[in-house]
Write a structure and sequence with these properties.
With 397 residues, this protein is of the alpha/beta class. The chain folds into two domains: 146 residues, Aspartate Aminotransferase, domain 1 (Alpha-Beta Complex), CATH 3.90.1150.10; 223 residues, Type I PLP-dependent aspartate aminotransferase-like (Major domain) (Aspartate Aminotransferase, domain 2). The protein is 40% helix and 14% strand. The chain is built from 13 helices and 14 strands. The strands form four sheets. It has a seven-stranded mixed beta sheet with strand order 2-8-7-6-5-3-4, sandwiched between helices. Helix 3 packs parallel to helix 10, helix 4 runs parallel beside helix 5 and helix 11 packs parallel to helix 13. It is globular. It binds pyridoxal-5'-phosphate.
Length: 397
């Protein structure tokens, strides 16, 4: 059978496949510590579950409007206005099956062969593949650990060509945990305005911020910026609702309408029950994410502190999201029984086999010098897991 060329351009999501391997090993009875998955270990809040139960009991189990129910689109518009001062009409809001699906709809509606999309690197694994799936070309913009992975205007401009169509902004960032301050966002916005670029702003970790930081949406920098920005967000991370699959996009009407049309011919509406649950989440205020962040903050410090004690490993304190992104280049050149450790992928493989610790190697995020570990897991697992990593690394010759 001859498959479409585009199917051969991409690989399965590495984070999902490593998590699946770790889960399969756990199911076989192995005591694997999972630092690979990308979801809060908290349960979905009770009022959200109650709203879903009420929806089922009330028979709210049929198709809904393909773009999402009005109640949810209005709740999203109100949230964006209350928190970021952004004004969207309901027709500018599209609810999809997770933020990943919102991003995919956007890539389908916006991109075609010849288009280029600038992606600051390290980057979340799906950006590159979604661009490739839609016949366009990802252009990586390297950012650096030493200055907190900042995006500099000049470096950004050097990446632009007449074919550049869009830039992706992901603050707080998965995997680095970096956040962009106002000056960085203004720099990006200014370039986007001058070069007529669409800004794709993935704000899925906006509520997971530490040390009193406040989220700034790039769209809030002015009406001219909002007019070229698509804000992508969802309830997965902030409300521990990864399995419910509700994400959304808000932006210019023409683009959102095109995305809505694509959705109406592909998935139709996101799950009716999950939509009611998402209304409860968004209307429920920030008490739940704030509580989660207090816990994540403790675990963040614990994990980073312990990782920094391992010889050959250095780890910055992430400012947002729930990942540590240690630099492990100091270990390269050492040897395991299975062979030399020359890159993050070798080390991740070694740690899974030798220490029964699942981590994601940095390569699919754009860095062969880093590992990504989630601290959205118990303090006890963090201590045991990092201790095991240390013991395994000390065995390397
Ligand atoms: C940066 C980033 N964007 C989007 C998503 C997708 O979120 P959702 O579960 O809403 O599809 C993730 C999930 O890991 C993510 O890390």
């Amino acid at each position: 059978m001859k498959l479409a060329t585009r199917a051969g351009r991409i690989v399965p999501s590495p984070t999902l496949s490593i998590t699946a391997t770790a889960k399969a090993m756990i199911a076989q009875g192995l005591d694997v510590i999972d630092f690979a998955s990308g979801e809060p270990d908290f349960d979905t809040p009770e009022p959200v579950k109650a709203a879903a139960e009420a929806a089922i009991r009330a028979g709210f189990t049929k198709y809904t409007a393909s773009s999402g129910i009005d109640e949810l689109r209005l709740a999203i518009a109100e949230k964006l206005q209350a928190e970021q001062g952004l004004r969207y009409d309901k027709s500018q809001v599209l609810v999809s099956c997770g933020a990943k699906h919102s991003l995919y709809n956007l890539a389908e509606a916006l991109l075609e062969a010849g288009d280029e999309v600038v992606i600051p690197s390290p980057f979340w694994v799906s950006y590159q593949d979604q661009v490739l799936l839609n016949d366009a070309t990802p252009v990586l913009l390297p950012t650096h650990e030493a200055d907190g992975y900042a995006v500099h205007q000049q470096a950004l401009e050097e990446r632009l060509t007449p074919r550049t169509k869009a830039i992706i902004v992901n603050s707080p960032c998965n995997p680095t945990g970096a956040t962009y301050d106002r000056a960085i966002l203004e720099g990006i916005a200014e370039v986007a305005l001058r070069h007529d670029l669409v800004i794709i702003s993935d704000e899925i970790y906006e509520k997971i911020l530490y040390d009193g930081a406040r989220h700034i949406s790039i769209a809030s920098l002015g009406p001219d910026v909002a007019a070229r920005t698509v804000v992508v967000n969802g309830v997965s991370k902030a409300y521990a609702m990864t399995g419910w699959r509700i994400g959304y996009a808000a932006g210019p009407k023409e683009l959102i309408t095109a995305m809505a049309n694509i959705q109406s011919q592909s998935t139709s509406n996101p799950c009716s029950i999950s939509q009611k649950a998402a209304v409860a989440a968004l209307r429920g205020g920030d008490a739940f994410p704030r509580h989660m962040v207090v816990e994540f903050d403790r675990r963040r410090r614990l994990m980073v502190e312990r990782l920094n004690k391992i010889p050959g490993v250095t780890c910055r304190m992430p400012a947002g999201a729930f990942y540590a992104f240690p630099n492990v280049a100091g270990v390269f050149g050492k040897r395991a029984a299975q062979g030399p450790i020359t890159a993050a992928a070798d080390l991740a493989d070694y740690l899974l086999k030798e220490a029964l610790v699942a981590v994601v190697p940095g390569e699919p995020f754009g860095s062969a010098a880093h590992l990504r570990l989630t601290y959205a897991t118990s303090a006890e697992a963090i201590v045991r897991g990092v201790d095991r990593m240390q013991a395994a690394l000390e065995k390397l010759a």
